[in-house]
């Protein structure tokens, strides 16, 4: 089993795979009579032949080290994971290599960070590290096949 060390989630390292949604930097606007900072247009939603839908996912919490035995991708739409608790979660991603995931990379979010995975990016399943594993998810809803899965013969071990 190959070991992969999870890195801290950063915009530069994660850029090939998607967007980080957080409140770093200067807000775009102050609204609600000065009581709310708005950080605008943080993710590139990319939806083919369907609509953007908002769903709630409640995933079982996992722990590190974590055994990664499969990855999936969505060829018809991006997918944003927005935790509804202020806790870190694990994100595993990989570039494509001839229709299969290349060597995975792992990231640990900081509390208050969310991610938007670009369309067609290989990624692991939703992996919260604390209960409840409640997330708002923005992704494509519509007809057609929008899921490809690959199972590894030899799993990867993700460590912190």
Name a few traits of the molecule.
mainly beta, Jelly Rolls, 160 residues, five-stranded mixed β-sheet
Task: Summarize the structure in words.
A hairpin with a 2-residue loop joins strand 10 and strand 11. The protein has 1 helix and 17 strands. The protein has one domain (2-159): Ureidoglycolate hydrolase (Jelly Rolls). Helix content is 2%, strand content 51%. It is globular. With 160 residues, it is mainly β. The two termini are 16 Å apart. 31% of the residues are buried. Strands 2, 9, 12, 14 and 15 form a 5-stranded mixed β-sheet that branches. Strands 3-13-8-16-6 form a 5-stranded antiparallel β-sheet, with no helix packed on it. A 3-stranded mixed β-sheet has the order 1-17-7, with no helix packed on it.
């Amino acid at each position: 089993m190959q070991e992969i060390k999870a890195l801290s989630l950063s915009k530069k390292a994660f850029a090939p795979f998607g967007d980080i949604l957080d409140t770093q930097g200067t807000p775009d606007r102050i609204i609600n009579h000065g009581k709310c900072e708005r950080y605008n247009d943080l993710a590139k939603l990319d939806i083919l032949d369907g609509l953007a839908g908002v769903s709630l996912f409640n995933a079982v919490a996992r722990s590190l080290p974590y055994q990664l035995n499969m990855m999936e991708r969505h060829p018809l739409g991006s997918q944003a994971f927005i935790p509804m608790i202020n806790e870190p979660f694990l994100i595993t991603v990989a570039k494509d290599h001839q229709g299969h995931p290349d060597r995975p990379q792992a990231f640990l979010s900081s509390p208050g960070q969310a991610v938007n995975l670009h369309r067609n990016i290989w990624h692991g399943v939703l992996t919260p590290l604390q209960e409840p594993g409640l997330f708002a998810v923005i992704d494509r809803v519509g007809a057609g096949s929008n899921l490809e899965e690959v199972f590894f013969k030899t799993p990867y071990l993700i460590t912190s």
